[in-house]
Amino acid sequence: MLFILAADGRDDERLNRLAEELARDLREIPGVAVTSATSPVVPGTKSGIALAIGQLAVSGGALSAAALVIRGIVEQFLNRNRATSVTVRNGDREVTIERPTDTQVDEIVDQLRDLLAK
């Protein structure tokens, strides 16, 4: 499962657009299947399942071999969309990939400038 956290809070429509965009990117990896994640809905409603906002189910036999490609796609996605993070969960284990803040990037650029000026 991949969970997207947007920088501007929980705007469901925006999270759905972000999830669709990330899904398109991930589907380009050979052998990887991506679908919208589902979750149980409130008891008493007509359907027992609802789409989970900002979540994707990713499967395929080559997932462990594609880990570097997935990481690269997620990093590009975070930079392109200003999302805060994407969490990848497998059972009770998870890894969160976070986009650096503008301040962190500025600090790195300043450090590089100082390093290369000497």
Provide an overview of this structure:
- The chain is built from three helices and five strands; from the N terminus they run βαββαββα.
- Strand 2 (33-40) and strand 3 (49-59) form a beta hairpin.
- The chain has 118 residues and is of the alpha+beta class.
- The longest helix is centred in the last third of the chain and has 16 residues, at 102-117.
Assembly type of the shown chains?
single chain
Radius of gyration: 17 Å
Give helix and strand order, one letter per element, not per position: EHEEHEEH
* Overall number of strands: 5
Largest sheet: 5 strands, antiparallel
Distance between the termini: 46 Å
Helix run count: 3
Q: Any idea what the shape is?
A: globular
The mean pLDDT is 77
The poorly predicted ranges are 45-51
The strand line-up of the biggest sheet is 2-3-1-4-5
- Beta content: 25-35%
The percent of residues in helical segments reads 25-40%
Structural class: alpha+beta
Please tag this protein with its features.
118 residues, single chain, alpha+beta, 5-stranded antiparallel sheet
List the helices and strands and how they pair.
Blueprint: E1 2-6, H1 12-26, E2 33-40, E3 49-59, H2 67-81, E4 83-90, E5 93-98, H3 102-117
Antiparallel strand pairs: 1-3, 1-4, 2-3, 4-5
Helix pairs in contact: 1-2
Summarize the structure.
By secondary structure, this protein is of the alpha+beta class.
